[in-house]
Design a protein that fits this description.
Length: about 180
């Protein structure tokens, strides 16, 4: 996925990196709202971790894979932040303290498992690819199926689903409450 932001490979790298910058700023704003709107230290901490994760996403956009070392540090920080946030959310939901169905906690657990697999085991997924050893991820020839990249897309797709489903759940509750208030 990082190749999408690589200036030497992707014609739309600037657009991809701009999307990371804007997305990171939006994450920071959203998590700042959570932190400021919380009355517990626990949720202020959750918001702070989310803001740091948003900052890591911004840094991924500022340091595309062309700048490999800072990019890898930022990308690992972003992935680790998402995994920690998902684990925190999963614990909250599965413990029964959250206004969300437990299935959303299970989805968050899946995000953590996928993130850990992606971050810790790329050489187990496809040991013959140089990316597994931490070198430049773009040497040619590329494998027909790059399992590490496939796992990265699973991670991103799972994380986006985990973020979208609680938001949809909250939105549907808010609309219901608004209709009740009008009646």
């Amino acid at each position: 996925m990082s190749e999408l932001g690589e200036r030497g490979i992707s014609e739309l790298a600037m657009l991809f990196n701009l999307g990371l910058l804007v997305g990171g700023v939006l994450v920071i704003g959203f998590m700042l709202g959570i932190a400021l709107g919380s009355d517990t230290l626990e949720w202020r901490g959750f918001g702070a971790l989310g803001m740091l994760t948003g900052l890591a996403v911004i840094l991924v956009g500022l340091y595309p894979v062309d700048d490999f070392d800072p990019h890898m540090i930022a990308a690992i920080a972003a992935f680790a932040g998402i995994a920690l946030l998902a684990a925190w959310f999963a614990g909250w939901v599965i413990a029964g303290d959250a206004p969300y169905p437990r299935g959303l906690g299970v989805l968050a657990v899946w995000v953590v498992i996928a993130m850990v697999a992606f971050l810790a085991f790329p050489n187990l997924v496809q040991p013959e690819h140089p990316f597994a050893e931490g070198s430049d991820p773009t040497p040619l020839p590329r494998p027909d199926v790059w399992l590490a990249a496939l796992l990265e897309w699973v991670v991103i797709g799972s994380a986006l689903a985990w973020i979208a489903l609680p938001a949809w759940h909250d939105q549907s509750r808010t609309i219901g409450a608004t209709k009740e208030a009008r009646a």
